[in-house]
Amino acid sequence: MTNLTKDNLIAILKDEGITDKNVLNAMHHVPREKFISINAQSQAYENQALSIECQQTISQPYIVAHMTQCLLENKTLSSLKILEIGTGSGYQAAILSELVNEVYTIERIEQLYKTAQQTLKKLHYQNIYFRYGDGHLGWSDAAPFDGIMVTAGTDCVPPALLEQLSPYQGRLVIPVGSSRDLDLISITRNKDDYHTDIIEKVSFVPLKPGVE
Ligand code: SAH
Asked: Ligand 1: which residues within 6 Å by Cβ?
């Protein structure tokens, strides 16, 4: 049994400014309880980040919804190809998968990479491609991407991700700053021009180099 229901959570997301109906529908459809441990089941629909394996976290639902809304704003959803850095539990990838044509997701911790694949396979998601590796490098053989979402914080934007954005309104959403003071920003590419918007203060686990 969960304390808060999905309907409670959707009402909270609306109150906090999530207006995109497609995003709200995806948040309603994806069973968050399948991405967390048995011990945390009662908190599945609370609007908070939760611990997952390997000292990582599944993001707060509001942040998942807001990052998704910012990434996909003004885009034609059915044709989009999106890259996510930081698969973690696989929850954000599932939300994206409900909305766009193809999702590519990269994780640097092998155990999480494997568990997320199993979870998403059980839930019958078929348009998600997984890679075990360092997301700083992006996924060059699948580029360009209409959107790239980084779900870990960094002090500098990885250049490969900027290069792998579509030159036609490709958008990167990424938490940038020092570990205690991160701004969620979006960078929208128009050919050689990159336009940055600051969205809000956030907290995230760090984007780390290499794999483990
Ligand atoms: N999107 C996740 C939240 C993940 S937390 C979800 O929906 O559950 C951040 C994740 O980023 C962690 O799993 C961490 O291992 C991963 N990560 C950190 N640095 C990375 C890197 N350089 N490349 C790929 N994944 C990375």
From this structure: 56-59, 85-86, 88-89, 91-92, 106-109, 112, 134-136, 151-152, 205, 207-208
Q: How far is 7 from 30, CA to CA, in rounded Å?
A: 12
**Substitution site in 92, 136, 151 for ligand 1 pocket (most atoms within 8 Å of beta carbon):** 151
The reply to whether omega before 144 is within 30° of 0 (cis) is yes
Q: Can you give the pTM of this predicted structure?
A: 0.97
Please give the structure tokens belonging to residue 16: 């906090």
- Write out the two tokens for 198: 């600051």
Active site residue 51: no
pLDDT in tens, the chain (212 residues): 446 899 999 999 999 999 999 999 999 999 999 999 999 999 999 999 999 999 999 999 999 999 999 999 989 888 999 999 999 999 999 999 999 999 999 999 999 999 999 999 999 999 999 999 999 999 999 999 999 999 999 999 999 999 999 999 999 999 999 988 999 999 999 999 999 999 999 999 999 999 99
